[in-house]
Write a structure and sequence with these properties.
Helix content: 40-55%
Strand order of the largest sheet: 1-5-6-4-2-3
Order of helices and strands: HHHEEHEEEEHHH
Largest sheet: 6 strands, mixed
Radius of gyration: 18 Å
Number of strands: 6
Distance between the termini: 36 Å
């Protein structure tokens, strides 16, 4: 119990392992009840992991709990401050809690900057998830200096913070939408809205284990 409480990586692996076992038990139960097609397809699915990219994929995972650790290492003070403000903004909603850590090895999520003028996104989230349980394993968030710090694109500090909030929303489990939301696909014109908080609650109030086909 002490090791679980004090070793982050062990705790996350244990939580994911419990979720995996729960999903496996359900799959076996479904096989006996005639819901699963074959044991071979079930075993194949049990070993699957996937990486989802917020620019091209629909984010539909979540964490085992409403919390995740994050390591922030921007090479620019403006982006560092913006990401820290975005973490505080999400924490203030009470819907999800990010804990900032000071080493990568203790982090579920790593947040860094990029400088990619060929990428059309001002921010990007890449999340690794277990495709059976639907739980995130880890993730990486990027804030793109080529857009956010280029005066020609008109990003104010507020819009940079909104972009960071948007990418953190993906890291929580939110997908893009077209409403007045921090998750609007444009990614920078709105801060966190009540609808975003409700969307997080909807995700974490339901069972995340995916049904096997």
């Amino acid at each position: 119990m002490w090791f679980y409480s004090n070793n982050h990586q062990f705790r996350r692996q244990t939580d994911n392992g419990i979720a995996y076992l729960q999903a496996t038990v359900k799959e076996v139960s479904d096989q006996f009840s005639g819901k699963a097609s074959t044991s071979s397809s079930s075993n194949q699915a049990a070993n699957q992991q996937s990486t989802v990219n917020s620019q091209t994929d629909k984010i539909d995972g979540r964490w085992t709990k409403r919390t995740a650790t994050i390591y922030i290492k921007m090479d620019n003070a403006t982006l560092q401050q913006a990401m820290e403000e975005a973490v505080t903004a999400w924490n203030n909603t009470g819907a999800f809690k990010f804990t900032i850590v000071h080493t990568r090895k203790n982090a579920d999520i790593v947040a860094t900057s990029s400088n990619n003028g060929g990428d059309q996104a001002a921010g990007l989230a890449q999340m690794n998830e277990n495709t059976v349980t639907g739980y995130f394993i880890d993730g990486h968030i990027y804030l793109n200096k080529a857009y956010l710090l280029n005066p020609s694109y008109g990003y104010t500090h507020e819009r940079i913070v909104n972009t960071a909030e948007h990418e953190l929303g993906h890291a929580i489990g939110l997908s893009h939408n077209s409403g007045q939301s921090v998750m609007q696909s444009s990614g920078s014109f709105f801060s966190i809205q009540n609808t975003d908080v409700q969307a997080v609650n909807n995700i974490y109030n339901k069972n995340s284990a995916k049904q096997s086909s």
